[in-house]
Amino acid sequence: MYENITNDNQTTYEITKPGEYVFYFENKNGDITFNIACENVNVYIYGLYQEREEDNFTLNITQNHISPNATSRSIIKSVLDDKSTLNFTGTICIDKKATNSIAHLTNHNLLLSKSARAITKPQLEIIPGQVECTHAATTSPLNKNQIYYLMSRGISTKKAEQLLIHGFIAEIKNIKKQYL
Amino acid sequence: MTKNTVTNDLNFNRNHDFAMPEITTSKVKRGINSKIVQSISNYKKESKWMQDFRQQSYTTFQKLPMPTWGPNLSKIDFNDITYFLRATDKQGTSWEDLPDEIKETYDRIGVPEHEKEWLGGVSAQYESEVVYESIEKELNDLGVIFCDMDTAVREHTELVKKYFSKLIPPTDNKFAALNSAVWSGGSFIYVPKGVHVKLPLQAYFRINAERFGQFERTLIIADEGSSVHYIEGCTAPSYSTQSLHAAVVEIFVLKNAKLRYTTIQNWSTNIYNLVTKRARADESAVMEWVDCNIGSGVTMKYPAVILAGDGARGSVLSMALAGKNQTLDTGAKMIHAAPNTTSNIVSKSISMNGGISNYRGLIKTTQSAKNAKSYTQCDAMLLDNNSKSNTYPTMDTQEISATISHEASIESIDDEKLFYFMSRGLTETQARSMMVNGFIDEITKEIPLEYSVELYRLINMEMENSIG
Fold first, then answer.
1. What dihedral do alpha carbons B307, A122, A170, A155 form, nearest 10°?
2. Which residue of chain B comes nearest to A108, CA vs CA?
3. Cα–Cα nearest to B175, from B164, B183, B187
């Protein structure tokens, strides 16, 4: 099941039937909680932020595992230009009963401007044993070597930057295409 | 095979589970007020600036709120703590001069053996003041100052004044303010320009009086181009009443200097260990914290490095082993405030028998931190279904050229791996200990040999007790 939740006002998603769920959103503010209350569930959460000027987004995601044997993965990517800010908190909560849970949380931020700012708080709250949980977060500028490589192939600086940004967000953009 | 069952009421530091009778000669009244703070100054015959500093800190302490986050500290009763006591009136100059009870306590921890082996200087803290101190001639010849903080305030006043509380002012947090008001003991180290201290400097800390909080204050200055390794290790006897340990450690690593600060913390589980540790690294300086937390009931400790000079490097290696009734809230803070600064954090935590281990960290990159790089890795291991592990990192990046990355993982002991080990003829306990020891190997290989051996034994002991 694919759902674009960008314009949803809903803050809690209850997952009560087995199956695969894909949630997608762009530039979304607010708290979103995914309650995984069913076994044999795969939940994918994709978020994309392309911010410029004085954009300021705050996102709090909670992957709440209540039932055992479920998987959740979230990938949040942001490209921050001008004076924009992304304030991201991602929490993985694994309940005592939710053994054999697999949960991953990834956040990658690309800073394009001196005044852009990324604040990221990936959190894990785990009680039971027999789980596999990871989170990872990075914040970095465009890779100079990669730009240089593209330029050595006759591509202008600007175009090279655009290509790299395009590549950075493609992982998320393609998900959307895949399901439409 | 019964798995994940808790059979024993654990307290693994049984070999240190003893208490010597108090031999206090002077002890201020229990509780805290400005008179008590003044009486500490009087006992120590302190000069005016320190007296004023203590009084101002006490005022700050009263104003500051308790931390609103982290573990539950509501059981601390500040009026039920004795803030100062003196083990012996005069400091012992040699081992033979020490009172028998103190010697006996140390013998059981093994201080003299350690000393014979390779100690550069021992400054052992029994109760709240340093009673035993042996500084090798070598250190004196090099011009290295290694003494307790009270002596430093008296004899190296100008040096102390220049750095004291400059990194951690009393206004920093409630416990830093408390420490500033009632501090006693702790180490002072000054390493002159270009001097490399080859042997690690060590200090043993002890708490032995019931309802007595220890508030040591440590200040280390590594002058330009010098290097030093300081080790503090603690073991404490068990008591049933709550006790508080609120230390402040300030470290200045000047240009091109290198400093490593190793802590092996093994307080008994009735102790609140709330420590503020901060270092400033100047141009091309290297600051390394190695932090092993095994004991205490509640620990809140986040060693910080302020990377203030171009090319400064900061590193934190942190290990926590949270057992029954323990909450170990540890982590690291890196403030990148200068260009080309790098930092590296490795945190390994193990939770067992219902213990809670938290990682709480902050990586802040200011706009002046061009090309800053930071990497954080925090791994947690859960050994049973009752234990808990949390990770709360914060990364605040305001600089475009900074590369900041963070990784965390939580795992439990894999049945398949366990099966593999056991098919090779190991018992389940052996297999589990082996995996746990392998998990923290990155940290243990960085600490001195006798400590890593001790740690290895402690973990094996723990594992034996945790499997029914």
1. 0
2. B405
3. B183
Domain boundaries, given as residue ranges, for chain B: 15-418, 419-468
Cα distance between residue A70 and residue A106, in whole Å: 18
Task: Give me the average pLDDT of each 10-residue run along chain B (468 residues).
Answer: 41 45 58 87 87 93 88 84 60 51 52 39 43 61 85 89 92 92 87 88 51 73 93 55 80 94 80 91 94 86 94 93 88 93 93 89 90 90 84 86 87 83 88 86 81 72 60
Tell me if B395 and A120 make a contact (CB, 8 A cut-off).
yes
Measured CA to CA, the distance from residue B465 to residue B468 in angstroms comes to 7
Q: Any idea where the domains of chain A sit in the sequence?
A: 2-141
Q: pLDDT value at position B190?
A: 93
A138, B396: Cβ pair inside 8 Å?
A: no
Contacts of A124 in chain B (CB under 8 A): 380, 389-391, 408, 410
- Residue B190 token pair: 């000054």
Nearest Cα residue in chain A from B367: A114
Is B413 within 8 Å of chain A by CB? yes
Q: Is A83 on the interface with B (CB under 8 A)?
A: no
Query: Are A133 and B410 a contacting pair, CB within 8 Å?
Result: yes
ipTM: 0.74
